[in-house]
Design goal:
The chain has 3 helices and 7 strands; from the N terminus they run ββαααβββββ. With about 130 residues, the protein is an alpha+beta fold. The protein has 2 domains: about 5-45, no CATH class; about 55-130. Strands 3, 4, 5, 6 and 7 form a 5-stranded antiparallel sheet that branches. The longest helix has 21 residues, at about 20-40. The radius of gyration is 34 Å and the shape is elongated. The protein starts with a strand and ends with a strand.
Length: about 130
């Protein structure tokens, strides 16, 4: 049984599903997709920025590399948490310790501190003090 109501000049058929405005849906989802594409295009996914540590982190890495060259057993080196102080525009003072085996196989602790200066892509380590 089909039910129709007369409301003035407009007839409403209550058995039919409501009409969907497909153009509205197409415009809506198109705007969502364009918005996502815009946001993704604004992101910088360059690997150089992610892979390059700052000079403070590099100072720690190169200082530890230098200390590993002067200890007897670099494979046993266990570095502490370094104290890094910036003392110039591209110069850092690094203070730390390393536990490693000596020539007899005993674990010893060596404290060290040094200054590391960055010259573009290269560095120099000065004022190395060890005990």
């Amino acid at each position: 049984m089909e039910l129709k109501e007369n409301l003035g000049n407009t007839e409403i058929n209550t058995n039919e599903p409501p009409k969907t405005d497909y153009w509205f849906l197409i415009k809506f989802w198109g705007a969502v997709i364009l918005g996502i594409l815009f946001l993704v295009s604004r992101c910088d996914f360059s690997s150089d920025e992610v892979a390059q540590p700052d000079n403070k982190v590099r100072s720690i890495m190169y200082t530890e590399k230098y200390i590993e060259e002067i200890i007897k057993s670099p494979s046993t080196a266990d570095f502490g948490t370094p104290e890094v102080t910036r003392i110039g525009s591209d110069t850092y003072h690094v203070k730390n310790y390393v536990d490693s085996e000596n020539s007899f196989g005993a674990m010893i602790r060596m404290k060290y501190e040094c200054d590391i200066k960055w010259n573009g892509n290269d560095y120099t380590i000065d004022n190395v003090i060890t005990d």
